[in-house]
Structure formats: structure tokens, C-alpha cells
Amino acid sequence: MQKILLSVLILFLFQSVYCQTGVDKCVSQNIGKPDSVIAKLLCDSSMKYRRLDFNLCYDYASMANKFALKSNVAHIIARSYNYLGVGYHLLNKHSDAIKNYIQAEKIYFSINDIRGYASSRMNIGILNRNIKSHIESEKDFKTAIKFATTTTDTLLIANCYSNLSGLFFEKNELDSALVYGLKSLKIKLACKTQKLNLSSSYTNLSTIYADKREYKSAAKYEKLSLSEAIANNDEYGAAVSYANLGSSYTMLGEFKNSKIYLDSALFICYKIGYLDIVPAILSHFSDYHKLQGNHEMALEYYFKSVKMRDSITQKTHEGEIAELQTKYETEKKQNEINDLNFTNQSQKTQLDKDAKLKTYLYLIIALSVIAAGIMLYSYKTKQKANKQLQIFNQEITYKNHQIEEQHKEIKDSINYAKRIQEALLIPESELKKYFSDAFILFKPKDVVSGDFYWFSESKKNNIIALADCTGHGVPGGFMSMLGYEMLQDILLKEEVKTTSVALSQLDIKLTETLNKNNRTYRDSMDMSLLAFNKTKNTLQFSGANRPLLHFSNGELKIYNGDKNAIGGAIDDVTKTFTHTDIDCKSGDVFYIFSDGYADQFGGPKGKKFKYKQLEELLKTIYLLPLASQQEILNSKLQEWKGSLEQVDDITIIGIRA
């Protein structure tokens, strides 16, 4: 038992020495510099530990205050008092925190430092909010805003509004919270000279929308917060965003996305060792399982959340014990001084003196035993929590490994499908052998494409087809492979005399294939089919929901085709396809395309490009070499799309007769 107590005491002393070492090292490295400079460096170091280590945050601020007082520089002294208030605040020593905030505020006021005064008043507001003194907190924040808005410190102004938003959120006045939260964000977005922390603003708004049960808006703002956190390498911010996104998607019933985000949040927390939000993440997992009807897992995660929260609370108690130990040591030294004075001055009997010494000795032993017992209990609790954390960490590592392996297998399979698809599609150089000039702009949305194009040469015709299948990615890729093989089978038969007959046969074959075994599918494809007669110099066109654009002698002609798709649901209506014969003149240009280019969102208002704008663009470039046209079309698409996601597969084929 004595060995255990000794080990605990040594561990406590080691932690205290370790925390102090970083402060001493900072001071020793800057010996010789002015006291005001050292104080400023220590203040900056204190702020770095606001999230990571509350004790170190306080230690740096305390040392900064000592050097600031020696420097006799008023604004440095005020700043050190402000930061020391933050240190006390984080350690839940509220009376000490408010004293230092007020001391900083007095100095700032005396030197007419309005920005510093507003900053101290905002910190007092935060403290009053934390101790639930909401009326005082609201007054503090509004006073801070009044003074901050007379300065040029955009970040301070935005933070004042953000904290006022947080106060109304705690009071469950969500509409007011939203108004001030949006005002804070607007101020940050309008600032061009400073790089401000947008991530926290987006997260605050997301939290408000989540409490209003507007989960789509909550997810929208949290995604913006996540982007900011990733761009700024803020792993803590990313973990918070992943956790909030997971919760929002749970409430929206999108459980697949929810699981991915919650796993990511938990992984980052254990990776960076910041565990304060882990209980909330585990609670989100409990909701995730509860809403899916898995009440056993929901209950398990609920208990994990409670246990983890108790473990973190225990660490706070350890800080309180350390404070008690410090006070005890101080009192002990004072008592020794008092005893010495008493020995020199007192004329009392030896019996009274012995009685007092015994009393002090018993008191010291009692306090030591109580302190050691509390510390031992804390140590055992911490060990148990660490074991549980280790188990959680191993589970997460194993699951992440499984996810990575599955992801790799899926990715390899899709890439293999891409190679097969690319092998089937003809290269642009092959098309140019049969026409004076041609280009193919082919941009799949995903790895594999739902668009495909086909070319073949028969005795009389050069045949070109462009198809746009239902969907994109892997489903679209399967449809494109199916359509490609059926085209091969139908169009190379001698009895198929017209493009309209070819589309009719393709429609019948695809419908029958997809609807075997009394199952009905609505999958289909749109298609443009061209047959260039080699001897007559004519072109025959049929379209299934797709047009043909023809430029001849400066005039644009549009052939719209039939309003029927290839395949689709079975019904009693018989589809019919027609064809159009067109005389080709030297220099005529023909375009066929899928709907991806016209449907792409972008531009200043985030709207679709649309067919009309595509036609106008082609009017301005159709006389250029087709290779140049391809570059212009691609460049215009990138410019229009900007940072937005590509919405569909894109294919355009241009041919000059």
C-alpha cells in the first residue's frame, strides 16, 4: 500500500515538474530580451494551450504576468491579466478569473485602449454565460460590441456577435441566436484583409439549425465548416464537423453517410488525443442505432458515452486535488514560520507546545492520507478509462483497415471496368481517317461513363452512334457496355437498311433483355445515329430523344429526332422511330451530343448552361478547325463550372463533311 501511495505521489510531482519545464524552457531561451518581449511570447504560448492543456495555459499566463509587471509597460500588463483570467477560467476558478479580467479592463480603460477594453468585457461575458448569469452576460456582450465596432478589429467584432449568438442558443432563443450568428459570419466573409476562422462560425450556425430541426441546413453549414477546417489543417475543427455531420445525417435518415462521418470524427479524436467531444460522438452513435431499431447497440453506446464523460470529469477533479495539495503545502510552510516565531517569543510551558505539535502532526497525517486516497482512486479510475480507450482505439483501427481494403477492392474493380470501356471506344484518330476533320470531347463524371460512342464502316456507309444511358458511374457503365454490344449485333447486319429500323430493333432487344423473368426495369438510353453514304454524299439521321445540329453555308439547322427513348418500361404503346436524309456539302459541320454539357451548373448564378447557350457558342466557333473547337468547348465548360461538381457524363462529337 505504501509503495502504491509513493508511486502516486511521485507521478503527481512528475506531472507538475513536466508542466513547469515547458514554461522554464521558454523563459531560458529568451534570457537577455526585454521583459515586455518575454511576457508577449509567454502570452502567445498560453493561448496555444487553450484547447490542449488547461494547466499549461495557466502556467504560461502566470509567468507572463510576472514578466509584464517587471516591464512596467501598461498594455503588456493588461494583456497578461486578460490571459491569466482565461487560464483561471479554464481551470474553473471563476472568482480568480473575474478579478484578472477586471484588472485588465481597468488598465485598458486608463490608457484608452478601446480594443483591449472590448476584449476583456467579452471575456467577462463568456464567464457569466458559463456560470448561467445570462442577464449579466447579455449586458457584457452588448457593451463589448458597442466598443468593438468603433475599432478596425474585424475578428473581435465578429467574435462578440458570435458569443452573443451562443448566449441566445443556451437560452433556447434560437431565432435570435441565428440572427447574431449570421451577422458574425457576414462580417467575417466581408473582410478582405484578414484570414478569419470561418469554420467556427459555420459550426455555430449548423448547431443552431440542428436544434431547430432543420437538418438539411445544419448539414449545409457543417460541410462548409469542414472544408475550412481541412484547408487550415485544423484536425480538432474537422473532428467537430464530422461529428455534427454524422448527427445531422442520422436525423435525416441517411445512415450510410452518418456512419462514415461519425467513424471519421472518432478516429481523429483518438489520433490527436483530444477527448472532450468523444462522449458527444458516442451519444450520436447511440442515436444512430436507436433510429434504426437496434436498441441493444444504442444502449451500449449510451453507456460508453456516460462512462467516457465521467472519465473526463474525473480529470477535472484531479486538477482540483492538485490545487488542494498546493494550498496545503503553502499552509504548511506558513505554519512552520508561525511555530518558529512562537518558539522565540512564547513563554508557555513545554506541555502546551507539545500538544500543539501533536495536533499539527495529526492534521498533516490526516490530510496526507485523505489526499493520497483520493489520488489513488483517481489513478485507478484513469487506468480503467485508458484501458477502455485502448479497446476503442483498436476497434477503430481494425474497422478502418477493413474499410480501406474494401475501398481498394472496389476502386481496383472500377478501374478495370474503365480500362475495358476505354478499349471498346474508338480513338479520335480512327474517326479522322474517314472524315476531313473531327473531334470527340469525352468527359465522364466518374471513373466509368454512362455515355458511349460507336463507329463502324459497312460496304455503303460510315456509321456513328452516340448514346446517353440512364445514370452515370458504375450503373451507367453497365448500360453502356450492354448498348455497345447490341449495336454491334444490329447495325452490322445487311437487312438493316435505315437508321430508324436500327433504333427500333435496338429498342426491342434492350427492352426484352432488361425485362426477363417478369421483372420490369425503367433503364433506357437516348441516342443519335448517323449513317454517311459513301457514294451519294448524303447523311441519314435518327434520334431517340437526341438532336443533330447541322451548319451549312452559315445557317444552323436542328433535327430533333423522335421523343422516344431506347428501352424503358414496358407498356401497350408501340414506339416508332423515323429518319431524315440530308444532302452533305463540302465543309458542312455536324454535331451530336449527350445532355451533360447543357445540364452543367455554373456561371455567376449557379444555373444550367442550357442548349440555347450551347447553340450560340457553336455558332461562333463552327468555322474553326475542329481541334480548336474542342479546346474552346472544354475551356468554356471549366470556366462555367468553376468549383462546382460535374453533374453528369459529357460527350460531344463534331464532324466536318
Molecular structure report:
- It is a single chain.
- Helix 2 packs parallel to helix 4 (74-90), helix 6 packs antiparallel against helix 7 (134-148) and helix 10 (198-211) runs antiparallel to helix 11 (215-231).
- The model is unreliable at 1-20 and 316-346 (pLDDT under 50).
- Strand 2 (451-457) and strand 3 (461-469) form a beta hairpin.
- The protein contains 21 helices and 13 strands.
- With 657 residues, the protein is α+β, with helices and mostly antiparallel strands.
- Among the domains are: 320-417; 425-656, Phosphatase 2c, domain 1 (4-Layer Sandwich), CATH 3.60.40.10.
- The strands form three sheets. Strands 2, 3, 4, 5, 8 and 9 form a six-stranded antiparallel sheet that branches. It has a five-stranded antiparallel sheet with strand order 1-13-10-6-7, with helices on one face.
- The N and C termini lie far apart (97 Å).
Secondary-structure topology with pairs:
Elements: H1 2-29, H2 35-48, H3 54-71, H4 74-90, H5 94-110, H6 114-130, H7 134-148, H8 154-170, H9 174-190, H10 198-211, H11 215-231, H12 235-251, H13 255-272, H14 278-291, H15 295-345, H16 350-424, H17 428-431, E1 437-443, E2 451-457, E3 461-469, H18 473-491, H19 499-514, E4 524-533, E5 538-544, E6 548-552, E7 555-559, E8 566-567, E9 580-583, E10 589-593, E11 601-602, E12 607-608, H20 611-621, H21 626-641, E13 650-656
Antiparallel strand pairs: 1-13, 2-3, 3-4, 4-5, 4-8, 5-9, 6-7, 6-10, 10-13, 11-12
Helix pairs in contact: 1-3, 1-16, 2-3, 2-4, 3-4, 4-5, 4-6, 5-6, 6-7, 6-8, 7-8, 8-9, 9-10, 10-11, 10-12, 11-12, 12-13, 12-14, 13-14, 13-16, 14-15, 15-16, 16-18, 18-19
